[in-house]
Amino acid sequence: MEQLDGLRPARLKVGIISAGRVGATLGAALERADHVVVAVSAVSAASRRRAEKWLPDTPVKPVDEVASAAELLILAVPDAELPGLISGLAATGAVKPGTIVAHTAGASGVGILAPLTEAGCVGLAIHPAMTFTGADEDLARLSETCFGVTATDEIGYAIATSLVLEIGGEPFRVREDARTLYHAALAHTSNHLVTLVADGLDALRAALEGQELLGQELVGDAPGGLAERILAPLARAALENTLARGQAALTGPVARGDADAVAGHLSALDEVDPDLAGAYRASALRTARRAHAPQEVIEVLTR
């Protein structure tokens, strides 16, 4: 690539397939870094709305036209759709040799891009370790997001690193053979945290149902209510303490070896929802084993 004023690579013509939550956000971030998103694909109504919001000056085009116009092609489709998209692009010859093709799937490395790299493209796997909701904060969060990158050689790693740094992220390398484990770690943390907090909110709402506490509003099911205000500082503190101190951050009845309290929790949760009690039991058992809790606690959890 040509140098701009001898300081950095020339700006790239970027194509985005497609304008989902990740693709639209990355496209907007790349434009902020002075690249030009020349075309984007957007099939669903939601994708078209995101393209209009985040990439208002970018034409929406069919996939093959997006691919042929790009010097940097971002494949931001769901993981399950990626193999079909890649094989289709390779079959049509829409991607020009020399094009940088980067996918954003977490569990796949660069091997999946073989149909395109064998045709002369530069293949990269650039995965943002972040959850995207489609809200305005997605773009702001990129500045504190780490990106797992995989490439076939040092030139590829240099390109991926440069792109991530330009949009404000922090790049780190993930081996090709470790991508699935890497992705599992992220999914286990972020996805299951949502379930854990949602379960906790359900139980707390059941505990406070029908009560008016110190003049506050009755507990309801709408997000942002009293239950969320109660759990928010506790959940944030637990997360921050764990990141800072690891297993030493653990508190509560399992850490204390209080088998009676754990048994009481299981009984109370079972009255609300047996599935919720089952989730508590599974999580508490994992916690007890990590914390080397007394056998009495293990016995309560394995009855």
UniProtKB/TrEMBL annotation:
The residue ranges of the DUF2520 domain are 145-286
An example Pfam family from this entry, by short name, is Rossmann-like
What InterPro entries has UniProt attached to this entry?
6-PGluconate_DH-like_C_sf (IPR008927), DUF2520 (IPR018931), NAD(P)-bd_dom_sf (IPR036291), OxRdtase/DH_put_Rossmann_dom (IPR019665), TM1727-like_C_sf (IPR037108)
What protein name applies here?
DUF2520 domain-containing protein
What are the Putative oxidoreductase/dehydrogenase Rossmann-like domain coordinates in residue numbering? 5-128
Which Gene3D superfamilies does its entry note? NAD(P)-binding Rossmann-like Domain, ProC-like, C-terminal domain
Concerning SUPFAM superfamilies, the annotation shows:
6-phosphogluconate dehydrogenase C-terminal domain-like, NAD(P)-binding Rossmann-fold domains
Q: Which organism is it from?
A: Mycolicibacterium brumae
Signal peptide from the UniProt entry: none
